[in-house]
Amino acid sequence: MTLPEGTPETNSAAAAAPGEPTRKPVAEAGSPGSPVFDELTRQRTKEIISRYPQPRSALLPLLHLVQSVQGHVSQDGIRYCAEALELSTAEVAAVVTFYTMYKRSPCGQHLVSVCTNTLCAALGGDAIYQRLSERLGVGHEGTAGEPGTTGSITLEHAECLAACDLGPVVQVNYEYFDNQTTESATELVEALQRGEKPHPTRGAPLTDFRTAELELAGFYGDLEQSVEGPSAAEETLRGVHLAAEYGWAAPPLPAEPPTLPPLPEKK
Ligand code: FES
């Protein structure tokens, strides 16, 4: 399927199911964020909110939905979430600025995250980040190319990406590329700039940042394809295999739950 540049594949009218609202913008008078978010996004907003007993609990996935539309969380996005969840803009902004997954400026087609936490850094993560930063001509959260267009890349250094046994690790749109070197990471980035989508070491095929954001909000164009691919690596499973080899097992759970001490009285 050919989509306009910067349009998440599963956020387009072409991807909408029969009967599902299409991507025609609908502005509502008196609502500052309204022109930015179309009817399909509003329907998805309602669906996200309906998943939770309290509307405010929907904030995190709703911010991912906003990023799937805009490629970042703008002031309009903050107002949109605040209105939808009856929160203040200050409450929404506090969450947006706390979590690094919410971006304050427009991202490229792909988000490349280089782990520079202790283990990966010692194994070469710092050198990889340095090389990619020079190759792309940008620093942390800088974007090479026009945000959202094919081949544009936002670079960031990240804290532990939870794959220390496979370091140094790079992620593209949160998909893993394990055991990287400066050369392999440079080749990866150059392929992305040419518009290619190299297959991650583990997990699903690459899409783009905005499609990944839509999936984080809980909407999948093709759920099976979105979770396709092995998620575990041999290094990660080594402990399980050793335990099986030596017959190690955790002690069985007690038949009755242990008695917990009484809680102290609240003052
Ligand atoms: S230190 Fe890089 S994945 Fe943990």
Automatic annotation (TrEMBL):
It comes from the Bacteria. GO terms for molecular function: NADH dehydrogenase (quinone) (non-electrogenic) activity. Residues 1-39 are annotated as: Disordered. Its EC number is 1.6.5.9. Gene3D superfamilies: Glutaredoxin, NADH-quinone oxidoreductase subunit E. The keyword Cell division does not apply. This is NADH-quinone oxidoreductase subunit NuoE.
